[in-house]
Design brief:
Blueprint (H helix, E strand, L loop, with lengths): L8 H32 L9 H22 L10 H25 L5 H7 L3 H11 L7 H19 L6 H25 L8 H23 L1 H6 L7 H24 L2 H21 L7 H64 L1
Helix pairs in contact: 1-10, 1-11, 2-3, 2-8, 2-10, 3-7, 3-8, 4-11, 5-6, 5-7, 6-12, 10-11
Length: 353
Amino acid sequence: MGKGGALSDGVIKKIILSYTYVAIWIFLSFTVIVYNKYILDKKMYNWPFPITLTMIHMAFCSSLAVLLIKVFKVVEPVSMSRDTYIRSVVPIGALYSLSLWLSNSAYIYLSVSFIQMLKALMPVAVYSIGVLLKKESFKSETMTNMLSISFGVAIAAYGEAKFDTWGVMLQLGAVAFEATRLVLIQILLTSKGINLNPITSLYYVAPCCLGFLFFPWIFVELPILRETSSFHFDFVVFGTNSVCAFALNLAVFLLVGKTSALTMNVAGVVKDWLLIAFSWSVIKDTVTPLNLFGYGLAFLGVAYYNHCKLQALKAKEAQKKVVQQGGDEEASGKLLEVRESEGGAGKRDEAED
């Protein structure tokens, strides 16, 4: 702090940079979602091939990740054995491919605004699967909050003007697979001391996703693409879309690395409301008062869940500091004892002399 309690130039610079990273992440996340909707929606670009689109993203992102790690050496690869890759990364890659496939498919049937409302169920799915896999402890208070989020999403779904059962099933499936992936990352990777940032995640996981998506693509979309003889690959549309998808991963790397995961969660809430407003005002999707009321309830539940997580994290950090201070005090006490004993021995030597 400078004179009169003014912020120093260094602090102001850090605040500006933090807001810049948040703005970049919101913009890119917003762009990727709207761009995917534009490509897949039958009323817009009319290219309803979600598996192919996801495979294009994975091929592009894995290629750039290899260049960044192997050629330009922007980040160091994680030391990982073949057995660890097969046991830990492959299951996560399979779940990620299913999550991306289903979530992209949902854009064909549902509005952007309604998809964001359904995504509010993510904390519910993560907590429930965490309890089932014994990664989270069951707490009645937390479960009550999860039920309130679910109730809010149910109201939003009831008020949806263009409700599509198949689209809702696809999005809920995507949420379930993504939640399972997030829990398994903690069990299979984090617990083993393996921490992947967004670039190394793409390096290891994207090729795996590409392989898993190849098999359903052969039977589901390839025959239709072959019949569509008039189709020509649009390098501008799919190239810029892939660049945005990769840039989003870099933005996550910057945002979490320079701020925190909590900042990203808060920014995600802002992004969701912006997407709902954009979907209503620009895309002209119908957003009913019941939609907003239900999502508002779910939003409050998610906000309370994030608040509880933050408090638990602060308590854990405080406990670590107490333990560390206790260890330092114990070490200081031992050092003092050693010095006193050395001093006593010196005095005895002097007395003997």
